[in-house]
Amino acid sequence: MTRARAVITDYIGTLVNANYYNMDASRRTLHQALTEAGFETGLTDFLEAYAQAHKKYHVVRYEQFREVTNAVWVCEALNSLGCVVSEEDSRIKAALNVFFQLYVESLELRPYAEKLLRRIKDHCKLGLVSNFTYAPVVYASLRKLCINQYFDAVVVSAENGWRKPHTQIFQDTIEKLQIKSEEAVFIGDSPLEDIRGAQAAGLKTVFVASQFFSLKNLSESGQKPDFVASGLDDIYRNFYEIIS
């Protein structure tokens, strides 16, 4: 068996928890930021248009695994309400930064997360793959949590264009790390997006239970990772066995 030369991790759920986050409050904050930027729409009308735009791209994102960014949803919602704007408009990015501020603030490292990252970095290359519709959130939160320095490659679906479990986003990360798929271990909490996707791309897999996915969810999914952990402490203690 090939010894791992790299470990790649999922982000939200796997390394960090989202605590005390209120999506409804953030959507209202987004509308306020857009209004202050000059896009005059009623709150109820905007929230409905935003929800419709989000629903429209569900099939593309969750069945075709092509990522569609928040900027696209926001622009589509505004245009449907009579505002003429493109996703490249700087006002959209500014409003999205406000929209996601509460989310970034809600993220906290899981127990053993930084200890595990340090141990990985001491022995392997380290990559991160995240399904996220607005890449600046990932980069800003990595800096806020002071863990950005550990990663040799960070790949976000909003920039890559593909979402897990599509194999392309895993393959692109492997290429960035300059390794072969059989030389990598992937750690994630989603049985389908992480475990099924990484296995299809030829990676060894580690499932870790999270606030989003339990050991029961893994069992019900039918996925068979190479190692199962109830927490990051399990991975930390068994790290050398996992990469051997």
Count the strands? 8
* Largest β sheet strand count, sense and barrel closure: 6 strands, parallel
Content-based structural category: alpha/beta
Distance between the termini: 8 Å
SS strand fraction: 5-15%
Put simply, the count of helices is 14
Can you tell me about this structure?
The protein has helices at residues 23-36, 43-56, 58-62, 70-80, 90-99, 101-106, 113-123, 135-144, 157-160, 167-177, 191-200, 215-221, 232-237, 239-243; strands at 6-9, 16-18, 107-109, 125-130, 153-156, 184-188, 204-208, 227-229. With 244 residues, it is α/β, with parallel strands linked by helices. Strand 4 (125-130), helix 8 (135-144) and strand 5 (153-156) form a beta-alpha-beta unit.
Itemize the secondary structure elements and their pairings.
Layout: E1 6-9, E2 16-18, H1 23-36, H2 43-56, H3 58-62, H4 70-80, H5 90-99, H6 101-106, E3 107-109, H7 113-123, E4 125-130, H8 135-144, E5 153-156, H9 157-160, H10 167-177, E6 184-188, H11 191-200, E7 204-208, H12 215-221, E8 227-229, H13 232-237, H14 239-243
Parallel strand pairs: 1-4, 1-6, 4-5, 6-7, 7-8
Antiparallel strand pairs: 2-3
Helix pairs in contact: 1-5, 2-4
